[in-house]
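Weekly puzzle thread! Below is a chain. First person to post its structure in token form gets bragging rights.
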Amino acid sequence: MSTFAKPENALKRAEELITVGQKQDALQALHDLITSKRYRAWQKTLEKIMFKYVELCVDMRRGRFAKDGLIQYRIVCQQVNVNSLEEVIKHFMFLSTEKAEQARTQAQALEEALDVDDLEADKRPEDLMLSYVSGEKGKDRSDRELVTPWFKFLWETYRTVLEILRNNSKLEALYAMTAHRAFQFCKQYKRTTEFRRLCEIIRNHLANLNKYRDQRDRPDLSAPESLQLYLDTRFEQLKIATELQLWQEAFRAVEDIHGLMCMVKKTPKASLMVVYYAKLTEIFWISSSHLYHASAWLKLFTLQKSFNKNLSQKDLQMIASSVVLAALAVIPYDQTCGASHLELENEKERNLKMANLIGFNLDPKLENREVLSRSSLLSELVTKGVMSCATQEVKDLYHLLEHEFFPLDLASKIQPFLAKISKLGGKLASASSIPEVQLSQYLPALEKLATLRLLQQVSRVYQSMKIESLSLMIPFFDFSVLEKISVDAVKNNFIAMKIDHIKGVVTFGHLGLESDGLRDHLTHFAESLNKARVMIYPPVQKASKLGEILPTLGEVVEKEHKRLLARKSIIEKRKEEQERQLLEMEREEESKRLKLQKITEEAEQKRLAAEYEQRKNQRIRREIEEREHEEAQAMLEEAEKRGKSKGKKKPILEGEKVTKQTLMERALNEQLRERQEMEKKLQKLAKTMDYLERAKREEAAPLIEAAFQRRLVEEKMIHEREQQQEIEMSRQRHDGDLAEKNRLARMLDNKLIFEEKVISRRQAEFDRLRMEREERINQIIQARRQEREAMRKKIFFVRTEEERLKRLREEEEARKHEEAERRKKEDAERQAKLDEIFERQKQRERELEEKERLRREALLGRSTDGPSRLSEARPLETGAAAAAAPAPGPGKYVPRFRRERVDGGGQAPPPEQDRWGSRSDDRPPQSSDRWRSDDRKPSYGSKGWPSARGAPRDR
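Winning reply:
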């Protein structure tokens, strides 16, 4: 690394090296100086060094050196003298452009010379092989080698400058100018690949600018000047993208403009918005988004009508016709019919995004906005007066397609208008952003719209029609194209029709009956009737003999079925687990194979790159050696010629090895010796000229003094003469002015009279106008006062009505709430009563069961002597025994409670019929049995609780 005490020494050393042809060493010396930390204070010498540095970089096409040097120089002069950096960058771009232009002018076939897909790609392998094999290069290859490298370097220059200036607030204008020049470069030479890269670079610069907001020299986008520069750059990008027909980049540029405006919350000027909407019309037409194309045309028409004062009536009429035809070109049905939920969501998001681009809303609220549609667009055309500005042919066409009903001759009525519209259009005189308007581009869409309208109208009149007749009615398309149009319309529920090619008939239907819900209505009706029949008359199930023999067979089969299902599920899970493991193993093997293949490919690529780099270095080294040998030979011949002309001896000794370094050292020594001799001669000549000049001045001094005195006398005489002439002329002008004043003095009275008349007339006119104005103002004030009074009354009435309705609603809600609470309370009370009745019923049942159990135990305890007594008692029964007796017989069974009554002196109850059919005293009455049977089956209410009707009565 070279070190210098002063920057001037480095510049001087570089010039010396350039003089002897060592440009690489000179460039390296300057590069070491610029990148050194010793010279970080800006001075004028550094600017001169940078000029020389960029010149060397351009001559040798060293873009990387230029970028490093400019970055270091930016650090030096950013805060001290940023204008110096601007001058250096301008000089750098000027030199690069000049070299590229020189190379282009030298090439005879520009298109063939620039037939390269990518300016940043290296040479292809076949080009290298061709350069090694072929000895002589053709003209095309020489042109390619001459022009392409310089254009690569120019493209690299633009990228370097944009990278250096991307976050510099003091050089925003230079950044914008560089971007514009890069755009023009891509446009002039049709460089589409470089244009895409340039757009991406600028987009990334803006994204980083918004991401890193804490940078010191970051441009402020809220400033009007900065915002205007960035907007101009994006609009230029949009123009060039549309001219190069890069529609995707054009749409991205539109998104960039919209994002920039949303970022700063400010709408650009009307002139820029005209360009914005003009390009949007082209983009949406290319992408077949006819609805948004028409909406963009409408916005463009509004802007032109409002802000372009030089717009002629003819141009306005052409633009209005384009708006109407673009709106008519929109398909009259929704194309999202039958789409999935995901597709509908994506389409909704896309529509809202494009609607934002057209409406240019800086803070959109998507949930409150209406979706753009064809009907709303046509109604907006009428309300905004676009229809009144269009031509008569367009108005008639709109009326026929949207409002008339001609199912048979609609196409024949439309054809003359389409023929006239196809001839309309051309260049516009005053709308600079819209160079021309061609209405013929809408003819295919209008023909399709006319076909759809005719099919729609025919379907309302006819049920069927022959294919030949329908083809004759629609002369725009063949029947195959007509069939495609009709299929799309039927798919989107615009019309209902079927084509029978066997019979040659087109059948029209009704959309209400042909919908998806009613298409299979007879089938659904038959299925419903079948289900109802099965419910009314269920099929008879035959009893299974096997079920009688084996009652538990169903349970066994069910258990076995469940076991088999569980086993099957386990087997399925095992299979799935095994398949998953196999897939995992295959995936791992595939990933290992891909990794191994990737490693192999990378190794092969590294090997090829190393071989290519080695061959390249060998070729460069060989070329350098050949070039040095040729330069050494040339320098040797020049030294021999110089030695012969001066009569000197041969500078090279016999047998001495001739090298470039030796010759350059000798040439430097020779030049140094010649320079010293020349300096001595110049010093001698300067001394001689000094003596001669001193002698001349000594001889000329008295002559100059004498001439000066003569000049003083002459100028004094001239001054006195001119002073006298001025006095005389002043006296004459004064006399003339007095005469003129006396002549005009007699008209002073007339002047005063005329002045009074004018003042009085104007005063009367002023009083009259003031009275009229005051009267008009009073009328307006009175009208506004009445309007405000009416509005206040209306607001008071509306507010009173709202309060009354609100009070009624609150009362109704309170009433409903009280009713609900009352019902809940009644239900709770009812439920409590039912619970109490149920508990009492259960208690009674328990008591009755206990009594019954005790009675049965008593009966079962005396069953041993019952039969003998019964057999003894039966013969004693006679007709007289049926009468009342004071006491039972000695062998008759008497219950305990009856015996107690008898022993107590009470009368015994009458005999009763026993349980085997005879009446005896040992059986309670039948009514008690009936009561017990009713006791065991209490009735239940509607809620499952026993009702009071089925509760037992107390005895």
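Puzzle host: Confirmed. Bonus trivia for everyone else. Residues 269-363+370-448 form one domain.
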